[in-house]
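Hey, weird one. I pasted the Class I SAM-dependent methyltransferase sequence into the form twice and got a warning about non-standard characters only the second time. First submission, copied straight from the form history:
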Amino acid sequence: MGFYSDRILPHVIEATCGMPAMRKPRRRACAGLAGSVVEIGFGSGTNVGCYPDDVTEVTAVEPSDKAWEMAAERVAASTVPITRGGLDGQRLPFADNTFDAALSTYTMCTIPDLPAALAELRRVVKPGGTLHVLEHGRAPDADVRRWQHRLDPIQYRIGGGCSLSRDIPKFLVDAGWDVVELDQYYAKKTPRLFGATSLGVFRSA
């Protein structure tokens, strides 16, 4: 990673995605998780404290050493055991059918090969297991989508590969994940370019 991506970007993500207002949707995304959970894009641990009591352990997949360092206090204070178990969601170092569920929040916008990551999650999550997501992406309104596409090249550079316009639910369905529940909305007090949100639960088909 370059200096910006490795040392500065984790702080930018912490400031934008770790705001107190994000706790409610994060709790909604985590609701229903149980057993052993793999969380891709763990970041600085902004989901810590949102896991339900039924979660027995969390395995964090996080490429940034700086983000993992920033998560140290949250990890230490967590009532759920958390270990760092991987660096790349596209190549998960786990056996088939290892986890009961998976979690991804504001991560799928940046994964270069998202179909590969979703296939890996299907592989490591047990049959019938669920993938809980909270992601921003493709807006429902055409005028907003046009601006998303225009600004995507800039966002990609400053956001560590982040795309504003990915249709995350479509990627999930195309990868063999069935929709269990899905809420799509514009986040309050957020520009629509960035605030088109998909919050839901998917099950491996």
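That's the output from the first submission. The warning seems to come from a hidden character in my clipboard, not from the data itself. Helices lie at 3-17, 23-30, 65-70, 72-77, 114-124, 142-158, 168-174, 192-195.
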